[in-house]
Amino acid sequence: MLDPFPHLSRVCPINALPDLLYSAACEVRRLEDDVPAECLLMDAIAACVVPVQRLYDVVGLDYRHMPTTIFMLTLAPSGRGKGTSYREFFKPLIEHNRQAGLVARKIRASKRSVEKAGSLVDGPEFQEPDGRMLTMISYRALLECLDGRARSVCVNDEDGGSFLESDLFVRMGGSLTKLHSGFDLDHVVKGVDLAAIDGRCSLGVRLQGEVFYPEMKRTNNKSFHQGIWGRAIVACHDPKRFGACDINMPPSWPGGGLNKFHHRLQDLMDEADKKQATGELIRDKIVLGDEARAFMAELKFRLKGWRETCYDEQIEPAVNRAWENTLRIAAVFQVVCGEGTEISLELVQRAWAIVQWSLTQHQMIFVEAARRESTSSRKEGAFSKPWPTRIKIPKPPKLPRPIQDARWVLECFATVRGTLGHALLADVIRLAGLRGPRLETALAWLKVNQVVEIVGKRESTLMRIPSVE
User: Fold this and answer.
1) pLDDT reported for residue 419
2) FRET partner for 418 with CA separation of 20 to 30 A, picked from 73, 370, 400, 426?
């Protein structure tokens, strides 16, 4: 299902967005035709993450679950429309945040009155609204927002230069990476005891390259190697350094997509608010469908080889997180644009198209922008493939283990069925000796590639050759 080598095109895959998000992006670009496709793509995903991380976790191949939180970084020049993109995509979330801020002020005033009276400040009536969207934030402020169980916050800034100077980024960056992985945080000092249990914090930073590059050079890309930007989906619109990028979007669009997108975000935020009001503290789970599971198993194997042969070792932290980010984005797409809680093959393919493009953006931002431009690199053009300086000779690709397992199951099927066109699935499984995720992935691979069919129920379930009735 995957090509032998990754695609290294730097053209923004805006059409990889699901229809609802793509329609909204086209409508935003009609409002201001200078908006870079990179900003539209990133803002569409970042806006979806805000409600989804409040409601859902995603389950991986090994049945462990992880947050649907996503970190995002967009570099674009000032005056190119990134503010328009942010405001249009986040419109219902900005309004929700305003209302939540007003409620939070009233609750704080009530707390102060109760404390002055010498009474204990406790109870659900003193719980501030969840799902806040903040711009200026410190570690203490982050813990105050997340204090409690299963709360969420989003750090999203239209112009994120101040974030690079905050103590949360400079001194406490590890707290963000812990939240990204789903770990708890605490802040215990004299008179203060805060604990974020099962908290979530997504990150969306937009700023100019002229602000970002000097900071990375000064710190020798410390925040990338520590994990903040290594975990992030990144985008770079920098015509001066890398040339202009073609925007593959239709010149006209019927409209209506942006309103539908806003209504969908509002519905999800309302659903999350209701869960919080009723005290539901367990997030629902999004799982992979059979076809998506087979795709993700193969992708996991391929990435291990591509890390050694196709990508610059300087962006290895991002390559190591590519599989996980694909799963998270696919889960977000499923919640916002799909039906049910099983991720489809189409959505993991769309997510992977975005993540593999993001790896080329990591190459541009953290490797090529830091390099002094040479005459030869300028002659190669704006979108030369980001191969490492020292090219490694590719080894012959090993057969992915899921395919090995699938072939073994197929051999067992041939043994059991003999001259017949079918066999009991239980007999095939017994002979194969596979269990759990390996068995499920092998069967999914065989079904997706139409090698076999599985029909019937329970003890009478049959495996058969598709052409045999």
Assistant:
1) 78
2) 400
CA 449 to chain centre: 27
Distance, CA of 406 to CA of 447 (rounded, Å): 10
| Residue 165 CB partners (closer than 8 Å, separation 6+) | none
| Residues 362-395 pLDDT 10s | 999 988 887 744 333 444 444 455 555 554 555 5
What is the average per-residue pLDDT within 171-200?
88
- Which class in CATH covers the domain with range 401-464? mainly alpha
Q: Is the separation of the CB atoms in 287 and 57 below 8 Å?
A: no
In this structure, which CATH number among 3.60.21, 1.10.8, 3.30.420, 3.40.50 belongs to the domain 14-380? 3.40.50
Residue that the structure tokens 């969306």 belong to:
204
Per-residue CA distances from 48 to 84, 244, 274, 337 (Å): 17, 28, 18, 10
Q: Is the pLDDT of residue 397 over 70?
A: no
pLDDT at 455: 87
* Region 430-449 average pLDDT: 87
**Average pLDDT over every residue of 25-54:** 93
Token code pair at residue 140: 């203490």
CA atoms within 13 A on the CB side of 240: 8
Q: Does residue 309 contact residue 395 with C-beta atoms inside 8 Å?
A: yes
Give me the pLDDT at residue 326, please: 98
Burial status of residue 37 (CB atoms within 10 A of its CB: 0-12, 13-18, 19 or more) = buried
Place of tokens 């980010």: 325
Query: Of all residues in the chain, what percent carry a pLDDT higher than 90?
Result: 42
Q: What is the pLDDT of residue 375?
A: 37
pLDDT score for 349: 96
Whether the model clears a pTM of 0.90, i.e. scores above it, the answer is no
Structure tokens at 80: 């190119």
- Are 60 and 327 in contact by the 8 Å Cβ rule? The answer is yes
Q: Tell me the domain boundaries of the chain.
A: 14-380, 401-464
Taking alpha carbons only, the member of 220, 228, 245, 237 closest to residue 367 is 220
Per-residue model confidence (pLDDT) at position 403: 81
